[in-house]
Amino acid sequence: MADAATVSEEALGAAPSPPLPADALIILPVRGMVLFPATVLPVTLGRPRSVLAAQRAVREQKPVGIVMQRNAEDADPLPIDLHRMGTVANIVRYITAPDGTNHLICQGEQRFRVLDYLTGWPFFVARTERIPEPSATSDQIEARFVHLKGQAIEAIQLLPQAPNELLATIQGVDSPSALADLVATFMDATPDEKQEILETVDIGARMERVSRLLAHRIEVLRLSQEIGRETRASLDSRNREVLLREQMAAIQRQLGEADEGKSAEIAELEKAIANAHMPKEVDDQARKELRRLQRMPEAAGEYGMVRTYLDWLVDLPWALPEEAPIDIAAARRILDEDHFGLEKIKRRIIEYLAVRKLAPDSKAPILCFAGPPGVGKTSLGQSIARAMNRKFVRVSLGGVHDEAEIRGHRRTYIGALPGNIIQAIRKAGARNCVMMLDEIDKLGAGIQGDPASAMLEVLDPEQNNSFRDNYLGVPFDLSRIVFIATANMLDTIPGPLRDRMEVISLAGYTASEKFQIARRYLVPRQLDANGLKAGQVGIADEALRSIIEHYTREAGVRNLEREIGRVLRQAAMRIAEGETGPIAISAGDLSGIMGPPPFEDEVAMRTSIPGVATGLAWTPVGGDILFIEATAIPGNGRLILTGQLGEVMKESAQAALSIVKSRAGSYGIDASRFEKTDIHIHVPAGATPKDGPSAGVAMFMALVSLLTDRTVDSDTAMTGEISLRGLVLPVGGIKEKVIAAHRAGIRRVMLPARNRRDFEDIPEEVRQQLTFVWLERVDDAVSSALEKAKQSKDLVAE
Fold this sequence. Notes:
It contains 26 helices and 25 strands. The chain is of the alpha/beta class.
């Protein structure tokens, strides 16, 4: 009976079960299928319980009860999850496939109803009541029988590929109940509908239900057949029309009456190709496609594709325009007009332009402006285009995850287009434009390919002189384009792509720089955006400084501009209501317009008790301060870390505690305290993930402060990685972190001594207002930052 050897209950992990009672039946739950009496269906076994039940039935040559579960998604149903009525089935064959799956061929025998389920077996066993088929006949049942058989035959004949064997089986059935069950088995109905038919014992009601469902399926098949005939007729008509048009065009050519409109279009395209100054390879391809277009009827589906392709070829700027010489003095003036501060950045741009002026044909580096949002990366690219007197075009790469967005789509279907690079060049209308690749760090990879890899050819001066877009199919020279990229963070840019660019970092603005930017650029721009004139509204300098210090906390000026616009909209409302005279906005007016300040100086408040230190962190949107809190609770020496810390940050906390334990005596800490105390380190803003080694010094200071009961100076912030030997190791993002400390009101910053090389990158204004302590070892931090500690003069650099 079975093609595979039976498996014992012990082999499947179940204890030997007792023999089955005489009136009990093994129950096999199935999903999404219903077995009717007198029909044969395959059943696939996937659950170990079902495999065990089937093999027990095969060994003892007993029938099984096929019952459908109510929810097909339920992987481990209970008896309450199964329908109460099913079909007794004989196992005709048991098969184990080569892939290890188990299959049954079951023949339905009779309906049954579950009375109750029994326990003691590793599969479902139930006491059942078999339901005999009604044998009474009447004229009404005979009539329904004939009607249902006619419906079944009609439905089979409407099928596209009707099986003759099924038609012969239907015609040979002479039992009303057998006919209803057979039709229900092969009818396209839902499992729930079939279960309702199975549970309908009365033969008249059962045939009525089957007939009603079958009538609906017949109507659907008729409509489908009618739609198919209409579609074929439409296609035949279209093919006939194309053939007639081709014949008419041939007759017109013989009579010399060719379509004048198409001839004029071909002549116009031929003239455009001649004036496009294409390279020879591209010119040959364009003329080849033009000859195809000339022989092609206008009604052909490919006509529009070829015409669009030729339009793209003739519209692209193949010829190199005459370049105006670069005026370095004018470029310097433009950069100063458009941007305040950023002296190192502007100096690097002037150097770049100077090299382009002296060696126009040299392979200039590709600049990548990296920094937080709102610091002016995109506007720097626009300024470079102005200084070079070239067209500017921007390509947004954020969220691009399809390689075809860079290289273009192949001309294999209607609607194909070139990639964003070629589209931008056509939009600029110049082969030597300044192209800004915005948000290059947000390129994604998907099943359509890796666009970052496609950008390698675009940004490689050795290759991009013959860039081949998939849509064009011909090389295009990108070597004269000035590419400028922008990014918020460099970690997500693949290494080979980052290697092709020279990264210029924009860390952010100081408070005084923000004030000058607001006064020079943001206020005039928002006055114009809100329909105001300079004489109508005035914002006091103290009001601008208050907005910067108390209503915004950012590296750039984007939120600052929004807040200025918010203030000016309030003034615009007053003027629109009829108020006359200039409106002056002072710092005292801000709370009434913008509400209470959302930011406050919380450093002194947080560090006023032992166990709290102020750290410095780097984020993709600029630097920020980070509070490290530590507390001691009775316990057995555990270290508890909270605040959604990454693995590296957790390791820094463990290293900090180890150093404190190893030097407990020198700091006046009772070493036995560690054995009966749990140390809990928490970094607030627990919903924000944090990681990195640069909080090591701050964690160490928080622990020393806690265990010595001495507070850390409230005006001091620190950063640095620590080693188990007590060394302070260098970290990155010094410029951003120091600017964030200055923005938060910190007056003293402790940095790793090996980060002195980054001191010159810090803005001069910030350097003058902060005191810097350079740390060689963690002991330097203890002597400099803890309460009542004296600073060592040789560690301080003004």
